[in-house]
């Protein structure tokens, strides 16, 4: 069976906001609805029946078990448009694009939306196990006395909510702690990390000034720009920040690490035929993608390095090298993780030690995250993939030809890479 070419037709997102700033009262559905309706308005999709909408949120409430379908039914799309939730930590947005792209390639659907959202300000809290069991038992009791007896059984401490920490269950460490180990293992200096962070902010500020994001963002709740962007930052200011995870010997700070973030993004994908019928231009094509996992419990430095393997497999299938790419979009969860990945890809000895056949080649820093990265925009887990795919799609469309490389790492030792092509 011959597969169809998969095109990226459009994109939209809301401004990303640091947790507990602009979107303190909003839910996942509130944020995603604005991103989707903005996409629908921009590309005149009102009333249209799409093949499917897929996406998700990494952190959801129990009531949000069918988040994407519930949100779609509140948009201006034909309410018969099917939708599904999927989740792969920080890879959620890009994996949603892979999911929709594969269905289009196989001819199962002609169009679809990949999306992602994160409302970290509306974080659900866990309860202690003793309280949870007491509440379940109380619910089964027939009498008021029986219910009261069960409710009084937990201690005062058991009633305290358990906040989200973002720890890896297998190691008990948060991402930043793992990445501190990565930075030390690969000798990534504080200066290198701060320089990457500074460049991210400078590139994004310039992109805003040039109007690059004007047709990519729908304002939300009084915000029209990503509020993590620091136009006035400098190497001097970044160097004065204290370490966040290893207080004594650490190099990761609030300046070279991404904060918890609220945001939503969406990308419109379709076959060439559907784009033509609907008078919408083909921006770029998705030509290759790869997902990989990595062992990180014994080798704690590996948590965010799975894209290193994904890139090798993908480039081998595509018959390409890093020299063939015009742009590189590498998710900046932490500056150290980006620099470690590049160091392995570029160094033959490190590459072989890591498990690659050989180094993959050099990455021209002038082609890296040229419109700013996650360190500037910040990182709403499930929405970052959509932002990155959209940015690269627009870059290549404006250039008129070329290839772009995407790499996104994720919790639990996973990662996704993708190639976009134009012309």
UniProtKB/TrEMBL annotation:
UniProt KW Cell membrane keyword: no
Gene3D superfamilies: 3.40.47.10
Domain called Thiolase C-terminal: residue spans: 299-422
EC number, UniProt record: 2.3.1.9
One GO cellular component, as annotated: cytosol
PANTHER family recorded: ACETYL-COA ACYLTRANSFERASE FADA2 (3-KETOACYL-COA THIOLASE) (BETA-KETOTHIOLASE)-RELATED
Protein name per the record: Acetyl-CoA C-acetyltransferase
